[in-house]
Amino acid sequence: MSPSKGEATTIEVDGHEVRISSPSKVVFPEAGITKLDLVQYYLAVADGALRGAGGRPMVLKRFVKGIGAEAFFQKRVPENHPDFVDTATLHYARGTSAEEAVIRNRAALAWVVNLGCLDLNPHPVRAEDLEHPDELRVDLDPMPGVEWAQIVDVAMVAREVLEDHGLVGWPKTSGSRGLHINVRIEPRWDYREVRLAAETLAREVANRAPGMASAQWWKEERGESVFVDFNQNAKDRTVASAYSVRPLPDARVSTPLDWGEVRGSHPERFTVATVLQRFAERGDAASGIDDAAGSLDGLLRLAEELGPAEKPPPAKDGSGRRSSTMPLIEVARTKTKPEAMEALERWKAKHPDVVERLHPADVLVDGMRGSSSLWYRIRVNLQHVPEAERPEQGALEEDYDPWAGKTWDR
């Protein structure tokens, strides 16, 4: 039953009163989880959740219309935030700034969940030092067709590379299909240096696991591999932190693991219900992460040895843009992912002979970050289709313009 518009409850958290609007609103229909259930989940795992997100400025990713609709990203903390929520002003590479929320306690955690935040998206810096990350983030992002065993194999190679260079990796499920490895580092390097270290790590993993792992930035050039996404370490980027609930029907959770359990820890095993029990029984698998801060000196020395990464060829039209080496066509641009997948199915129905030749990784679904939300682009790599049978680039099945109606400062 839907809650009335004005329904609300107030809970006391460590001496603070936190108002929860629409507490009986069902957030995850399949799992039967309400908004208040979600708040109570985060309070139960707060020790681990705050270890991952506490003390860091964070982007508020708000699912105000539920998990079936796109979230919107809010950088600026609401002006009426309570006094138990701290803030920090971040200055971005493009010259803008925003005062972002910094949560340090259980009450603040409940407050951001009440805003519609399902997952927590902190920056890799502490509020006390916004220019020097203390966390390097390894995002193992599998291409379509990649099985869990391959993701784990790549994770083990990444662990080996980290250890060879004096660093400790702490694995967790991403909450989707992949794995994250968080690495505490001393806050002595700026964003550019941390990203270079991450890119070097990715290149070394790809060198040690050819065909299984890729450090290729361009999606169409990765094949059926696990992309070691080093760009998650760029300034302005955030990643769902430990114990974040992801917007999937089963209420899946990004869960810290011990290395010994990684191979058998398929992501679908970890949901709000199972993680509550797991946390109550064993606590946080990453409880020692803050005591394991390491140096980037080893990876930065390796960066010098490897030399600059290979750059893609420029476009032939003289524009200076990067030119793909793959035969790509664009199928659709849409506001939502379901619309994108519907457009793809319409395109497939028109080209059944082409579809028979496509590999899973040939269909590229790109989530494009807009000013406050995602929009979607569908492309198809025709590399496995004989040249004479490749369809020409035609009109898009859907042609959403994410910039329509936007007003610009200048």
From TrEMBL:
PANTHER family assigned to the protein according to its UniProt record, in alphabetical order: ATP-DEPENDENT DNA LIGASE, BIFUNCTIONAL NON-HOMOLOGOUS END JOINING PROTEIN LIGD
Protein name: DNA polymerase domain-containing protein
Gene3D superfamilies listed in its UniProt record: DNA primase, PRIM domain (3.90.920.10)
Ranges for region Disordered: 305-327, 389-410
Record's signal peptide: none
Domain (DNA ligase D polymerase) ranges: 34-285
InterPro entries, A to Z: LigD_pol_dom, NHEJ_LigD
A Pfam family this chain is assigned to: LigD_Prim-Pol
Top-rank taxon: Bacteria
